[in-house]
Each structure stands twice: as C-alpha cells, then as structure tokens.
Design goal:
The chain is an alpha+beta fold. It has 10 helices and 17 strands. α4 packs parallel to α5, α7 crosses α8 and α9 packs antiparallel against α10. InterPro entries: Creatin/AminoP/Spt16_N, Creatinase/aminopeptidase-like, Creatinase_N, Pept_M24, Peptidase_M24B.
Length: 395
C-alpha cells in the first residue's frame, strides 16, 4: 500500500479553525477523523467526489473518505481518498498539506489514517470519530493499531461547526430553495386531470434536474389521501395536491412544500390553507437572532391550539443545511429521533431553519406549507417565497 502523501501547495483551511479548535477543546478531542460525506465535504471546502456521489459500495467494501485534523495544527491535516481522486487533486489541489489518494475500501482508508496519526504523533491521542458514519471494520482496525488511543464521539462537535452558515453557503441554500420552488410550481401547472402520482413525481424530477439540482425525493398526495408514496392514483377535478420535495444544489438541501388544486379552490379550502398560513406566520414573527427557538415553537403552537383544525394539525421546525436535519435542533423526537437541545438557546444570524405546518384533514386531504428561513440580525429572510397559496393545475 502506498502511504506516501502527495504534498499540496500552501492553502488556508476553508472553515473557521479557531471555532473548530474551541469546539474540540470543549469536547476533549485532540484530533478529528471525519468520515461522513457531509462533514468531509464541509472540511474540504465543498468538495465531493462525483464517482461515489450516488453510491458508496464498490467491490467487497465501500468508499470511505477521511479528513484528519489536529487541534491547533492545521498544517498536520490530511485527506485520505480513493485512488481516482489523484486526478481531482492534480486539477484542483486539496488544501490539506497531506493527501493520500490511494484507497479502494474501508480497511485501506483506516490504515492510511493510522499511519498519518503515527506520523504526527497522535497515535495515542483522544481521537474524535463519527460513530454513525464509521464502518465497524474500519473502527476495529483503528482500535487494534492505535494502542492507548481514546475514541470520542465528535458528531456534536462537527454539527456545531456547521450551524452558522457562511454567505457562500447561504447563497447555495437560497438557490436550492428557489430552484425547487420553480420546479414544483412548473410541475403543478403541467399536471392535469388523470395525471398519476408517479407521472407527477417523474415530471418534478425532470424539472429539478433541468435546473441543475440533484433530485432527492418527492412526497406527493392527491385528493383526500394522506399517503405520500408514488402510485397509479390519478388527480381528479376539485382535488388538492401537496408536493413536498428535497433537492440538492452543490451539496446543500432545499426542502419545501406547496399546494395545488385542480380547478378553483372552494371556500373551505381557502379557510384550511389560511389556518396553516396563520400558524406559519406566528412562528415567523418570532424568528430573529437572539430569540430562543422555543419562542417560535410556542407562538406557533398557541396559534395551532386556537385553530378549528387543531385536532389533525401539527407544527414542526428544524435546522437544515448540508443535511435536512442539523443544528439548531429545536424539537425533541418530532418526528425525527433527536433531542431539542437548542430550543432554549438563542438563534444566531446565519442559521437556517425549515418551518412546516401539516394538516391531515379527514375529508380534504393533506394540506401543508413548508418554508425555509435564514435567520438575520433583525429577523429572517425567506428562501423560495413564492407559490404559498393554492396553485392551479392545468385546465
């Protein structure tokens, strides 16, 4: 195995090293081994290897990128990647002083990380890892070859590092939201009586792809049904449509929901969507830097309780960025399993939050708005702020 690192030209790390050093000190971590795709992408300044963008598996193993970062010593950093990434490095050098583009699986990647840790004198250190994103065979190899090392869960540390978005990240998140909104509105406008859920979802995939997004999912309902999976169900006159989609722009997530109707919305539909909108607006009114996330939640839940449809309506908000649920974590196990540890802390400018109100009406169907807010000093900026009423399908 070739463990000779390729040297890169001197470059500044593309993230706040002082913040990362502080977070590592708080977590009692000497050196990080980041292995998740989203965190390696973040630590590499947005880079993601296209060959494994859709699937990690290859042969008998899988792709395992590793970024090694020592607290206070960015000059000791390394990137461990696949052999084919040598070409990527030649064209656009990675910032890390050492680059080991020599792996085909998990064990050779872990072995190269071990050799690098030994070289920088950290073989017996407190090593931060991402347990949910470190294969068991790679962890076993690390443990067997790093005698005296103590492994620490660094998941929280890396989540904190990404919580405040840079202007460049905010621009990507905004563009993702705008392009998804355009795609959803175009899809609704093209759908007509008889269009099936499967056909509408495929149309959205094409709309997003043609706009430069990586399509991730579409959750779609028609009529009175609350089932959001693809099916042959066809859209009928007078029925509602909810379209909830996640698309990815250069690694950053857009996640919104908009409503359609085949024909003119009747008075009841107007009232139901107005209830959802009132709950959303109650949350928006509390969104600003310095306010606690719990203030948004309390305001929305107060409005929800006064709603005529409260018995079958739910409010939820969550942080988002490189992944669809990240810091700030505002609600506990609702519905994704994590603790709302940030609910009582202050929101900070640069945080991005998804705000969603979902009504499961027993007769009219699935009625929902989901919006994306970037927290600012004086309030918020909404991304994709269009099509929030009833959008008509094709005549």
């Amino acid at each position: 195995m070739d463990i000779s690192p390729r040297k890169t030209r001197a470059a500044e790390p593309p993230f706040d090293t002082a913040k990362l050093d502080r977070l590592m000190e708080e977590a009692d971590i000497d050196v990080l081994l980041a292995t998740s795709k989203h965190n390696t992408q973040y630590l590499l300044g947005g880079y993601k290897f296209i060959f494994f963008a859709a699937m990690d598996a290859i042969g008998h193993s899988r792709y395992l990128p590793i970024v090694v970062y020592e607290k206070g010593s960015p000059d000791h950093s390394a990137y461990v990647g696949n052999r084919m990434e040598g070409g990527e490095h030649q064209n656009n050098p990675f910032w890390t002083p050492a680059v080991h583009a020599a792996t085909w699986g998990t064990l050779d990647a872990a072995a190269l990380a071990v050799e690098h840790l030994k070289k920088i004198g950290k073989a017996g250190a407190r090593i931060g890892i991402e347990p949910p994103f470190l294969p068991s065979d790679a962890r076993d190899l690390l443990a067997s070859r790093l005698e005296g090392a103590r492994f620490v869960d660094a998941t929280h540390t890396l989540e904190r590092l990404r919580a405040i978005k840079t202007p460049q990240e905010l621009e990507k998140l905004k563009l993702a939201s705008e392009l998804i909104t355009d795609s959803m509105l175009a899809t609704i406008a093209a759908a007509r009586e008889g269009s099936t859920k499967a056909e509408i979802i495929e149309r959205l995939r094409r709309e997003e792809t043609n706009r430069g997004l990586h399509f991730e999912y579409c959750l779609l309902t028609l009529g009175a049904s609350h089932n959001r999976a693809a099916s042959p169900q066809a859209w009928a006159k007078g029925e509602v449509l909810s379209i909830d989609s996640g698309g990815n722009y250069h690694g950053y997530i857009g996640d919104l929901c908009r409503m359609g109707v085949l024909g003119e919305p009747d008075a009841e539909l107007e009232d139901l969507l107005a209830e959802v909108e009132a709950i959303q607006q109650a949350a928006f009114a509390k969104a600003k830097a310095g306010a606690a996330g719990s203030e948004m939640i309390a305001a929305a839940e107060k409005m929800l309780k006064s709603s005529p449809s409260a018995a079958f309506t739910d409010f939820f908000c969550h942080g988002m960025g490189l992944i669809s649920h990240e810091a700030p974590f505002l609600m506990t196990n609702h519905p994704v399993a994590y603790e709302g540890v940030d609910a009582d802390g202050p929101l900070e400018a640069g945080m991005v939050i998804s705000v969603e109100t979902t009504m499961l009406h027993p007769k009219r169907g699935f009625i929902k708005l989901e919006d994306t807010l970037a927290i600012t000093k004086d309030g918020y900026e909404m991304f994709g702020n269009r099509g929030r009423g009833w959008n008509p399908g094709a005549a």
